[in-house]
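## Example pair
The file below holds two records. Each record gives the amino-acid sequence first, followed by its structure token line.
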Amino acid sequence: MKKDIHPDYVECKITCLCGNEIETHATQPTINVEICSNCHPFYTGQQKIVDTAGRVERFMNRYKGVYGEDKKN
């Protein structure tokens, strides 16, 4: 490998918006993230739908009768 072209590999503290802190190694001393394994719905089991511009409601109206309580058999 060539000398003096690789960044330093230092101890790193990753901070999530939920307050969780993880210590690891990286090329940066601090990293801020919006979501981590402590607050991600896949790991917590809690479904959290983030509705942007009414997209979820538009989807539910479009497929009314196919999904949910209005389904007809």
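Second record, same layout:
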Amino acid sequence: MCQSLVDKVFQSKQLRTVAEPDILALFEDWLEELEEEVIKQVQKSGPNDLRELARGLGVSRAGVNFLIAKLERDERI
């Protein structure tokens, strides 16, 4: 389920049109928490072990790749 939510970020405009505002706010909070955890882990040990990071976050490696790419694009890492 977590991975499917991360994948939905790509479709955020569509998600906003169908999601209840409270659900969307929860999703955005959850995504921010994931991003902060990725930032901490990358600063601590680098993005070397994506499998371990994914396991720790409870998302797939593709989800971690997405988060890292998003954070790099946003210049947060």
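Notes on the second record: DSSP finds five helices and no strands in the chain. The first helix runs from residue 2 to 8.
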